Amino acid sequence: MAFISLSPELSAKSFTGVENKFITKYMPILDPLAVKVYLYGLYLSGNAGTFTIDDLAKSLNISEEQAVNCFEYLDEFELVQITCRSPFEVTYLDAENVSGTPKKYKPEKYADFAKSVQAIIKGRMISTNEYREYFYLMDEYGFEQSALLMIVNYCVNMKGDDIRVQYIKKVAKSFAAEGATTAKKVDEKLAQFTSSTPSLLKIFSAAGISRRPGIEDDALYKKWSGEFGFSDEAIIAAARYFKAKTTEKIDEALGELYRNKKFDVKEIEFYCKNKNSVHAATVEIAKALGVYMQNAAPYIENYVSVWCDRGYELPALKALASYCFTHGRKSFEEMDDFIKTLYDKGIISEKAINSYIEMTNAEDEFIKKVLSSCGLTRRIISLDREFIAKWREWNFSDEMILKAAELAAGKNNPMAYMNGVLSSWKSSGVFTPDKITGAAPAVTSRGEKTVDRSVIERHYSKLRQIAEDRAEKTLEKALADKVYAKLHKELNSLNIQLAFAESRADGTEDEITQKIADTEKNADARLKELGIDKADFEPHYNCKICGDTGYDANGNPCRCLKKFIEDYKRA
Fold first, then answer.
1. Which of 42, 275, 321, 566 lies most in the core, judged by the most C-beta atoms within 10 Å?
2. pTM greater than 0.85
């Protein structure tokens, strides 16, 4: 009969599996409390439910601190890995030796090494198991004896004589991972670490970290100064302003600053001092846009911080959020597109933004007035803005635009009709009300009475569309050229700047006007090189009198309309 067997009742119950390697290699040398914690943690990992380090401590009738210390002890033996401190989380690892029992080593092979390592660790006797760990490192990882002795000596200098072998193993494995297993390469790696030690000591002192820097700290420092590009002063500033008291916290702080492109000490100081206000402003912007925001961090990082980096102040951003909401831009993405447009135009300061908003609001009021005069009650659309901008380019005053709107009242397509009237006025040089000789009467032509109005409107709409498409394609061809496109964009920006300068009367009008003239000259020269006539940017209508609207400058039926009706009747 076997030495140990299970009763049928016990066989039917659930079990917690423990590696034989743990029982044969580790359990005889581990602290008894650590074994209890290991086994109970293993049991919890195989059972459903959510358990915490506090639950484990209460079940074993120990303090949470004792439980954490045991897991740290087990982590040094590489039986577990602590993956998170808050909340405390642990991952169980497999035991190291495949055979399950420590490997046999010939004492005479490592006799000199054993004497040397005991001479380095003077404060305690080295156990047989610890010697086996060193022998294992040399056999499995290919360390030269002198190389491993250098690593042990370094670790003792860092941690003292009571250092555990598991820490030495971790350091040795980090050296092996970089191919440093010979005395020469270990010496080179230690020299590199020594070169960063003064900087680390300075950083530790500023952060209030009392321990000496280790190899793992050197790896972090290389990341901070090399990969991230922070100076020692910037790292110290980050530790101070984020109140980071550990290297892990400093690493988190520098990661946040790196993502937000804050590298200089002054940038870090400003970022940290304004962090709370930026968060509050982001919440207000979200409310103004009508956006539900569960976590502000992504919005701060991807939008608000970027806007601030471009020079936009928080009060101005709040005002822009309200403006965007009322104009149908109800997301951070759409607000970002709008801000990019403003940025391209050089509108950044709060004063410039307020002026722009005031000007745009005034423009909207005028467009509403035009639509009302036309007899339209719909909301403003982008085409309305394009029409107004074009008519202003034609040098028509608001008074003349409203006059055209009055003439367009009752027409099937009032805005298109206005465009035709203003185009014919432009061709005839009619830019003031006193030059308008009459109003547009109702259609009274005998031919028109017998021709459906929709036929006439479709005819002229098609003519205008052909002319306008031709002009648009010419402009698109020119803008496809990068040189001209850049000059065109500069001209648009300068014209906006001139409008603001004239409204403020700040004395820069002449300078901007000269820049516009110079830029236009360069743009015209480029068009000539491209073989494009600037005049082709404007539609070339078939009828120069009415601009393919059917009505002349006075709103009377044009002769081309009369001819069209006669031809239509004969057809």
1. 321
2. no
